[in-house]
From TrEMBL:
The keyword DNA-binding applies. Keywords: DNA-binding, Transcription, Transcription regulation. The keyword Transcription regulation applies. It comes from Mucilaginibacter galii. GO terms for molecular function: DNA-binding transcription factor activity; transcription cis-regulatory region binding. Residues 5-59 form the HTH lacI-type domain. It comes from the Bacteria. InterPro entries: HTH_LacI, LacI/GalR-like_sensor, Lambda_DNA-bd_dom_sf, Peripla_BP_I. This is LacI family transcriptional regulator.
């Protein structure tokens, strides 16, 4: 099994103090050349790597902040990043952006890289794969300012910026119901994400209010959030193959919502005549799709802006932060042709 060596391990093996090891590894002039050689050779032998968390927290402020998102090309996140940068640069901070591509492993690597560059704080939107958030708890306890936005972590006591996911999903589903659609399927992101669970609950609540029985076959997860086209194609094909095929789709993110139209068109499904569509997207071109898309639009720019203001305030605070804020934004439901009424007048 791979063993990760620490400064304490090296000090014990060589019979030296941890402070001597630390100075030798940093190239301090106060340590003799022979000792430096002894320590560095042994460190190389055991493949020692400095702890990026410790390095970051010991260093002076870098006036940079790290951003962790699933994908910059995602319409929501590109707009949120614009909001982040508008505040950061005006406040004298650089922004380092990383993408997880919905991978928990890549998220961890990205965080370690950001810490190795001594960022002063983090703005984080979790990857779809992430279930173990103890790493963030450790960082928070060590004093690193963290603000979660959009995809938040409920179990960690820190600042959070997100939307009312339940209400947004409820309203979009109810719009479809009021337009005459009763067999509404739900294509969503990974169930690991709190936003997926909250949006599912909103969808279910709308069905219950209108006394529509939930069909488990109408619930399909895309664990990569539509980033893998074949995953979304498989989800749609599964729904189209059902004996009691749905007459509408409610989708929960940019990639899934905008990806559905071309896939349905390729399979000869007319929207909204054969199947209606409503979903979350911040695409600026939603109005120009054929048909135009009914969407739940999030105030992404404002969310990124507020999250950054909160983070910088935390970074520059003279005292330890003991009280944390949760900011919940409202969304805008824009009704267009893709959800046009199925009721015959």
């Amino acid at each position: 099994m791979f063993q990760s060596y620490t400064i304490k391990d090296i000090a014990k093996a060589l019979g030296l103090s941890t402070s001597t090891i630390s100075r030798a590894l940093s190239g301090s002039y106060k340590i003799g050349a022979n000792t430096v050689k002894l320590v560095t050779e042994y460190a190389e032998k055991v493949n020692y790597r400095p702890n990026p968390i410790a390095l970051s927290l010991k260093a002076h402020k870098s006036h940079s902040i790290g951003v962790v998102v699933c994908e910059v090309a995602n319409n929501y996140f590109s707009q949120a990043i614009n909001g982040i940068e508008s505040v950061a640069y005006n406040s004298g901070y650089h922004v380092i952006i990383t993408q997880t591509h919905e991978s928990a492993a890549r998220e961890q690597v990205n965080i370690e890289h950001l810490l190795s560059r001594h960022v002063d704080g983090l703005l984080v939107s979790l990857s779809a794969e992430t279930t173990d958030v103890s790493f963030y708890q450790e960082l928070k306890e060590k004093g690193l300012p963290i603000v979660f936005f959009d995809r938040i972590v409920p179990g960690i006591d820190t600042h959070k910026v997100y939307i009312d996911n339940f209400k947004a999903a409820f309203d979009a589903t109810e719009l479809l119901i009021n337009n005459g659609f009763k067999k509404i399927a739900h294509i969503t992101n990974s169930s690991n994400l709190l936003i997926s669970r909250e949006r599912l609950n909103g969808y279910l609540a709308a069905l219950e209010k209108h006394q529509i029985t939930f069909d488990q076959d109408y619930l399909v997860y895309c664990d990569h959030g539509g980033m893998l086209i074949h995953e979304l194609e498989t989800a749609i094909d599964e729904l189209l193959a059902l004996p009691n095929r749905p007459d509408a789709l409610f989708t929960t993110n940019d990639r899934i919502t905008t990806g559905c139209l071309p896939i349905l068109k390729k399979r000869g499904i007319k929207v909204p005549d054969d199947m209606a569509l409503a979903g979350f997207t911040n695409s600026d071109f939603a109005e120009w799709f054929a048909p135009s898309l009914t969407v739940v639009r999030q105030p992404a720019f404002e969310m990124g802006k507020l999250a950054t203001e909160i983070l910088i305030k935390s970074i520059e605070s003279k005292r330890p932060i003991e009280e944390y804020t949760t900011h919940q934004f409202e969304t805008e439901l824009i009704s267009r042709s893709s959800s046009a009424s199925a009721i015959a007048f």
